Amino acid sequence: MLFKDIQLTVYASLFAALIALGAYLAVPIPISPVPIILQNLFVLLAGLLLGPRWGFASVGIYLFAGAVGLPVFTGGKGGLAHFLGPTGGYLLGFAACAFVTGSIAHSTDTNRVRDTLAVLAGVVITYAFGVPWLKISASMSWEKALFAGMLPFLPGDAVKAVSAVILCRTLRPVLLRRIQTVAP
Amino acid sequence: MADRLAFHYLPGDSLLHRWDARCKLAALLLITFGLLHTRPLSLALFTILLLWGFRLTHAPLRTLLLDMKSWSLFLLMIFLLQALSLSQGEMRPLPPLPVTVEGVETGALGCWRLGLMLSAGMLFTLVTRPQEMREAILWFLRPFPFLPAQRIALMFSLVMRFLPLLLDEAERVRTASRARLGHLRKNPFTRIKVLIVPVFRRSLLRADDFALALVSRGYKEDLHVSLPGIAWLHLSPLLLLLVVVFLGSMPLSQVFRTEWSAFLDFFRYPVEWVTQSQNRL
Lengths: 184, 281
What we know:
Largest interface: A-B, 53 and 55 residues
Shape of chain B: flat
Strand content of chain A: under 5%
Number of strands of chain A: 2
Oligomer: heterodimer
Structural class of chain A: mainly alpha
CATH architecture of chain A: Orthogonal Bundle
Radius of gyration of chain A: 16 Å
């Protein structure tokens, strides 16, 4: 087993822990009544920094920890039953989001435009899973599902998407340097 | 590190420490399943159960309560959100505030449940060694041969180690930022940046230590792990939990619920409540 492989395994676990703690980090913003929960910022960062495979793995481990019963889902919830609840679609959407963001952003020439596109696609994918699931499981109409499960969060998502791109520019060199220097 | 206990493992020899890790994992699953209902009766039962659990571990409860202080801010926020957002009802106990009894009730029950979930997670990590946790997960993943069980178990136990480590780092960075008056900044971008970048850098260094430690100890994924069968004695507490879960979701709690709403009626219609109770007397 390559050292780089183990290193990325540990990094993916680190990101899973960050996503889990993100459920408890709330930053109030002036534009919207709903405070930003930093959780999907870390999901986006996992995709951007680790790439599709390891980003997906890190969200997968986070979902596994939540399924086992640790209180790591948004609002401190946990347990297998939440996958079937009204917010279960967003949980699966996180995994898809990390994968899609990772596959768009991960290439030999990374630039800001590509990162921005990746983050936007990631946000769209999260809602593409979350809103239909909310509609079906809570048997709402489309408009109501959009109003309850998407529109209030969009200002926060804009802030998070911008922060993800900014943070990625700062953190990517740090991560790449660690991977290159420590590997034998 | 020593002044913080949340999500750390505390070595010990209590009953809960000696309980089979697989049963502990199953118990955690059962508890989260039981906490799906926010009925006062089931919440009260789980509170008693968890308090008893914490007593069994002989953990320094003062330190744990201090740890809970930082979570209580989060719980308060959730409570306020729920209390303020459910404003469809008419009854307002405090006229100037847009608060309804329903909102306060659901908010309080929701916070109670969240507190219980956090305590259950804390209690589990307090009494389960990461090694045992890893083996337990390997055992549970045996029926799914297509999953990379060894890797999942390793990553899960790494996540469990990173949780307290990241909390410590975040606390340290936040204290440092407060010392430099960082909490006075209004811009959310800057606030996110000054918190996350240092925490990320520091935890990345720790992550590399973990990776080096794994390699230097010859980590391999093809090692066979065999666990003995679970003794009947270890399974019996799970039965007790099952009973509690059932009690919490039985019609019995409906009876309790009417009592609860009668109690709340006092806040809704204080004058009518008093006259009614006078009539009863």
